Amino acid sequence: MINRAVLVLNQNYEPLNICRARRALVLVHTGKAEMLENGTGFVRSANAIFSIPSVIRLDYMIKRPRNFGTKKLSRYEIFSRDHNTCQYCGKQSHQLTLDHVMPRFRGGEHTWENVVSACIPCNRRKAGRTPAEAGMKLAHRPCAPHNNGGFHIPHNYLEAKQEWQKYLPRMN
């Protein structure tokens, strides 16, 4: 319960971050934030019972730069971009590997446009070949994620946390 995700909003209700319920409880009970949405469950101490928040709003404004640049290329970001789905067979899993569409030893670069998520059997089947040489087709052409200067919420939270929807900007 104490490790549940909590949406943190800036003073102006702009999504700022996602933190754990433990951190959110500390912010609320030290007077640095207010609870907007009650989560499911309670935490008991020796003297009191505390509601676990789902959405909190900070009592002070955090200034954020508007020019974020491009996102860092990492395993987590690739899997998030591809929705934890193998780009060859379409199997959704949390046991994925990174695959270079054009193998690195053949001149392929480690860039957003050349790296996709793949399940282990598909990655082994493709081996050091291109998808065309291996007779495999990509589900989506890899590209850098769109960076609209806003806060990025991983897709698994968007589906699971319905109470967050009214605080998030509409995605088109």
Summarize the structure.
By secondary structure, this protein is an alpha+beta fold.
Please tell me how large the radius of gyration is: 20 Å
Helix content: 10-25%
Shape: elongated
Summed up, the domain count is 2
Per DSSP, the total helix count is 5
Biggest β-sheet: count, sense, barrel?
A: 4 strands, mixed
N-to-C order of helices and strands = EEHEEHEEHHH
- Overall mean pLDDT stands at 85
Distance between the termini: 32 Å
Strand portion: 25-35%
SS elements, strand count: 6
Strand order of the largest sheet: 2-1-4-3
Which structural category do the helix and sheet elements fall into? alpha+beta
User: Can you tell me the residue ranges where pLDDT is under 50 for at least 5 consecutive residues?
Assistant: none
Task: Name some characteristics of this structure.
DNA Binding (I), subunit A, 25% strand, 6 strands, two-stranded antiparallel ribbon, alpha+beta, 172 residues, four-stranded mixed beta sheet
Task: Provide structural commentary.
The chain has 172 residues and is α+β, with helices and mostly antiparallel strands. The protein has 2 domains: 1-63, no CATH class; 75-134, DNA Binding (I), subunit A (Orthogonal Bundle), CATH 1.10.30. Helices cover 19% and strands 25% of the residues. It contains 5 helices and 6 strands. It has helices at 21-29, 75-81, 120-126, 131-134, 155-160; strands spanning 5-9, 15-20, 33-44, 49-58, 96-100, 115-119. The chain has a 4-stranded mixed beta sheet with strand order 2-1-4-3, with helices on one face. Strands 5-6 form a two-stranded antiparallel ribbon. A hairpin with a 4-residue loop joins strand 3 and strand 4. The radius of gyration is 20 Å and the shape is elongated. The mean pLDDT is 85.
